[in-house]
Structures are given as structure tokens and as C-alpha cells.
Design goal:
Order of helices and strands of chain A: HHEEEEEEEEEEEEEEEEEEEEEEEEEEE
Oligomer: heterodimer
Radius of gyration of chain B: 19 Å
Strand content of chain B: under 5%
Shape of chain B: globular
Strand order of the largest sheet of chain A: 1-10-11-7-6-14
Largest sheet of chain B: none
Number of strands of chain B: 0
CATH topology of the largest domain in chain B: Rna Polymerase Sigma Factor, Chain: A
């Protein structure tokens, strides 16, 4: 390798690693880990002493004691490789809840609970999470829920008579105990633990949606509990930034987590403000949630519109065709193994068509059904 | 309910109030560099933050020793690399390199593709070769310093570096663009 090539490598490596914007230093997590390390070391030292005692007493114990009794393991079903832990039919429509990896190929496995293969909800690392979602366009009047249970709790009882057993789901190297069920939005919902668990109330809180037509919850967006173990944000990044005609800068940021794919659109001007909105989390093979929000406040149509959405792993580029025939070619940015695209359409232009391109430049899909404000879902 | 959080809250502060401020300043100044170094070693943003946390947590536990060390950064780097080794042992099968883009790289708009291609090329290297590349061209360490970090001889560093560069030579990131 020549000196020039080495300089090129150094430049590329610096460019790549400097582009990483770490979050603020997580002091609490670091000090907590420090304490865990100290506890483990103390435990290991105590364990070594205890082991010596056990070895010394083993022969006596063998003579004196009965064979040890092992408590029977609680029976639990294990989900198959497809990760399905609950399924059924609601109002004539089949449904299923599963744990699925929603990261692109080649990236760290990212487990999420999906309803019928779409609308993902990242799985929490510990029990205690419960969430509901509704798909009014597909199944009216019905919501779907899951609960992450401790391993020793065998299931839950829904509305006093429906026993829902926990299912073990192995995904991304982790093991989860999950229950899933559907419930009618017309009636109350009461969920009780099948077996008491220390520190948990017998009634499990599941965030419920309101009656049909009155729900304020967005279609396909999970409503989660937030327990102390739950991170509010799984990943965050700046997706795109630039300058509008006339000078003001703009930026589109992403916060991805149990709250969904949350975008923040901001315009850097004296009168500029931020707009933020969350949409359903897309899955690699599911519909893509296309978000559109004005950059800052103003009369509709008077200002620039920002667009952001997650694209499938196979998407290499997206072409945004404007109403005057010109086009924007934003490059996808990968955040936590998921590809996103973000760009801005300055006033008075408007977005006419979106075209998905693969690595060879071939058209994968296109649509003219783009939102002006808020989000829409499109299946490429 | 006695949970893990309560249990940890009962553990006294590891380093004491006075040293807390020193550690806080140390962690704040090192955190971005550690995350970036870990990202270079793993290509995984989540894992990088996790490894950086681990390194600083270990530094926190051993703060008295670390704060008096001639080169605390070398200590952190060693922890980070060791954490990376443990990760490779656990996840070797799961790790799959991403595909570099088919289209040629030119212009600032394609920086993301360039970076993706570089990360993909790094992922295709064996862990030790990836480490020497990142430690040499990102951290700017000498052969001896890299050897100290990795726990090997400077000769091993040179041979690993040579092999890694040979594998990277055909990468389009190195073959194209200016080097100004």
C-alpha cells in the first residue's frame, strides 16, 4: 500500500468515525454498571469461600441427606422459529403477534413485537412492559395487547375468564416470556396475573385504547407502559440537514424507540420552531411509514415541507420527483441497522412522486400517494 | 419490591464524592472518542455505546488506580479491545458483513455510501486486523503502543497491519477520490 493509499484510508476512517455523534455520557448507567461489577466481584469472592466449605462438607452431606428434590419447572410453551406467541381471529380477520428482527441484514439483531408482520414495537430488555395497538382500518373495534411477564408467572387472566398462557420466545439471543391477546374496544379490560409476583400488583396495567372512533391513538402505533427498565429512546440520529433558499438551515432528526419512529423537523431561523411527530415502526418487509411535516410553523403550503421515512434494506436510493419535474436524490442513512431517508421540499414546490431504487438503479416501487402533513403507510 | 435497582442503590458509591467530580470530567472528555473507537472496532452503534459504557464502568471501579496511571487512555483502550474480543467470541456466527454499494463513489453526496463501504470492508477483516487498522489510522498509535493495547509483540502488529492493508487495497474507498 502506498503512502497515498494510507492517507486515503486515514481520511476515510476519520470521516466515518467523526460522523458518529454519541449521545450525552450516560453517567447513571456507568456508575450503576460499576456497582454491578463490584457486586459480582464480591459475590465471586464469597462464592469461592462457600465452594471450599461445600467441598469439605460434601461427604458428610451425602451420607446424611436424602436425594435433593427439584421443584418441577413451570410448564410453558415455546414459540417456533417464526416467533409467534399469540394468534387468533377477530371479527373474521386472522391476527398474530410475533417477535421479529427488524434490523437490516448484516446489522445487530433488533427484536420487536409485530402485529401481522407490521407495525413493530421494540422489545424491552426486562419484564414489565405492556402495550396496546389498534388497526382500525383492518379490524374495527378490536385492539391487540401484549405483556412481558417474569419467567415464574405462567400467564394472565383477561376479564376474569380468559386464561392466556405465557409463551417463551427466543429471539436475538434473548428469552422473553410473553402473553398476547385481542380485546374489544367496546368493553372494559381487566388483566390479572395467573400467579402473584413479588412487587407486582395482581392487576396488570395495560394501556387501553378508547372506544371505536374515539381513540386518540394513531393507527398502528403501540401505546406502551414505561417502566423503570425501559429506555425512552432506543436510537437517535440526525437524518439530514441543509439550507433552504434564502438562507435558513433545516435539520431532520430521528428518535427511534418504544414510542415509534419519532421525527423532529426544525428550521434554524429566528422565527423557526420544531415540529415533532411519531409514526408506526416499519418492518423490513412491511409497509413503510412516510412522514411529512412542515419545517417550523406557518400557513399550510407557505413553508418548506420535510419528509422522512424508513426504507427496506434493499433500497439503495430514493428519488423524490417534484411537481415541476425536478428531483431530489436523498441517500439513505442507516441508524441502528435500519435505513432512513429524509429530505426537504422548499416552497412553492411540492412532492409529486416517490421512487424506490435498488443498488443497480432499478425501480423497486413508486407512489404518488404522499402525505402533505402527518403520515401515510405505503407497501413498496 | 426488592429489585435490582434497589439492590444497587444500597451499594455505596464506589469512588467517593471527591473523586466523583474527577471521574465525571474524565468520562465526559473520553466518552465521544471511546464510542467512536468502539464503533470502528465493531461497526455497530449500539454495541459501541455499550462497550464504551463498560470501559468507563471498569475505569470507575478502578478509578484510584486509573487516575494515577501515566496513560489512563491506554487503560481504557485495553478494556475496550478486551470487551470487543469477548463480543467476537459470543457473536461470531451472528456477524455478517454488509454488502458494499455497487455504484461508484463520487461527490460529497455519496459520503454515506463511502462510509458504508469502508465499514463493510472493515467488517470483512479478522478482528485482530481490524483492530490494528483502527488503532493505527484512527487513534494514531505506534506499533509498540498497539502491541501494548492488544497484548502482542510489535512484530505481530506489523504483520497483521500488512495483511489488513493488502486486503483493503482493492476497496474502492482507497482506490478513488482525492487525498488532499
Amino acid at each position: 500500500m502506498t503512502a497515498t493509499e494510507e492517507r486515503q484510508l486515514r481520511r476515510a476512517l476519520h470521516g466515518t468515525l467523526q460522523s458518529v455523534s454519541p449521545p450525552p455520557v450516560p453517567f447513571e448507567a456507568i456508575t450503576r454498571r460499576g456497582k454491578v461489577i463490584r457486586l459480582r466481584r464480591a459475590g465471586a469472592a464469597a462464592g469461592a469461600l462457600a465452594l471450599a466449605g461445600i467441598v469439605a462438607l460434601t461427604s458428610l452431606a451425602l451420607r446424611a441427606s436424602q436425594p435433593p428434590t427439584v421443584p418441577p419447572a413451570a410448564p410453558a410453551m415455546t414459540a417456533g422459529p417464526d416467533g409467534v406467541f399469540a394468534s387468533g381471529t377477530a371479527d373474521g380477520h386472522p391476527w398474530r403477534l410475533a417477535v421479529q428482527n427488524i434490523a437490516g441484514p448484516g446489522y445487530r439483531c433488533l427484536p420487536a413485537i409485530v402485529l401481522n408482520g407490521t407495525d413493530a414495537d421494540p422489545v424491552y430488555p426486562a419484564p414489565g412492559n405492556a402495550a396496546s395497538v389498534a388497526l382500525d382500518q383492518a379490524v374495527r373495534g378490536v385492539a391487540f395487547a401484549f405483556i412481558q411477564l417474569p419467567a415464574s408467572v405462567g400467564g394472565v387472566i383477561v376479564n376474569g375468564d380468559q386464561h392466556v398462557p405465557a409463551v417463551i420466545v427466543n429471539a436475538c439471543g434473548y428469552r422473553y416470556h410473553l402473553v398476547g391477546f385481542s380485546y374489544s374496544l367496546a368493553g372494559p379490560l381487566r388483566v390479572t396475573l395467573a400467579k402473584p409476583y413479588p412487587g407486582w400488583p395482581s392487576d396488570v396495567f395495560v394501556p387501553t385504547l378508547t372506544t371505536p372512533g374515539g381513540s386518540t391513538q394513531a393507527e398502528g402505533l403501540w401505546l406502551n407502559t414505561y417502566t423503570y427498565t425501559a429506555p425512552g429512546v432506543t436510537a437517535s440520529a440526525t437524518l439530514a440537514s441543509g439550507t433552504l433558499p434564502g438562507g435558513p438551515g433545516w435539520i431532520i432528526k430521528l428518535q427511534f424507540g418504544p414510542g415509534g419512529d419519532c421525527y423532529e423537523f426544525a428550521q434554524n431561523s429566528p422565527a423557526g420552531a420544531q415540529m415533532g411527530y411519531c409514526g408506526p415502526v416499519s418492518t423490513p418487509a412491511g409497509p413503510e411509514t412516510i412522514m411529512a411535516l412542515p419545517l417550523g410553523f406557518g400557513e399550510p403550503g407557505a413553508g418548506a415541507i420535510g419528509y422522512a421515512f424508513q426504507v427496506s434494506p434493499g433500497t439503495a436510493r430514493v428519488k423524490a420527483v417534484l411537481d415541476n419535474g425536478s428531483s431530489v436524490l436523498p441517500t439513505p442513512r442507516i441508524v441502528d441497522g435500519r435505513k432512513y431517508v429524509a429530505f426537504v421540499v422548499p416552497s412553492p414546490r411540492s412532492l409529486h412522486r416517490l421512487i424506490w431504487l435498488d443498488a443497480a438503479g432499478r425501480v423497486m416501487a413508486s407512489t404518488t400517494a404522499v402525505p402533505r402533513y402527518g403520515y401515510t403507510q405505503f407497501q413498496p | 419490591m426488592t429489585n435490582r435497582r434497589d439492590e444497587l442503590a444500597a451499594v455505596p458509591d464506589v469512588i467517593g464524592t471527591d473523586s466523583d467530580e474527577d471521574f465525571s470530567a474524565f468520562a465526559t472528555s473520553r466518552w465521544p472518542g471511546l464510542v467512536r473507537l468502539a464503533f470502528g472496532l465493531t461497526g455497530d452503534r449500539w454495541l459501541a455505546e455499550d462497550m464504551a459504557q463498560t470501559a468507563l464502568a471498569r475505569a470507575y471501579v478502578a478509578w484510584r488506580r486509573v487516575s494515577r496511571a501515566d496513560d489512563p487512555d491506554a487503560y481504557l483502550r485495553r478494556i475496550l479491545v478486551n470487551a470487543s474480543h469477548r463480543r467476537f467470541r459470543r457473536r461470531r456466527v451472528a456477524e455478517q458483513p454488509g454488502d458494499p454499494p455497487d455504484t461508484p463513489i463520487d461527490g460529497p453526496a455519496d459520503l454515506v455510501n463511502e462510509r458504508t463501504a469502508l465499514l463493510a470492508a472493515l467488517r470483512q477483516l479478522p478482528p485482530r486486523q481490524r483492530e490494528v487498522i483502527v488503532l493505527r489510522y484512527w487513534v494514531d498509535l505506534t506499533d509498540a503502543q498497539i502491541a501494548d493495547t492488544l497484548g502482542c509483540s510489535p512484530g505481530t502488529v506489523r504483520s497483521q497491519l500488512s495483511r489488513a492493508l493488502a486486503k483493503l487495497r482493492d476497496n474502492p474507498v482507497l482506490a478513488e477520490g482525492d487525498d488532499a
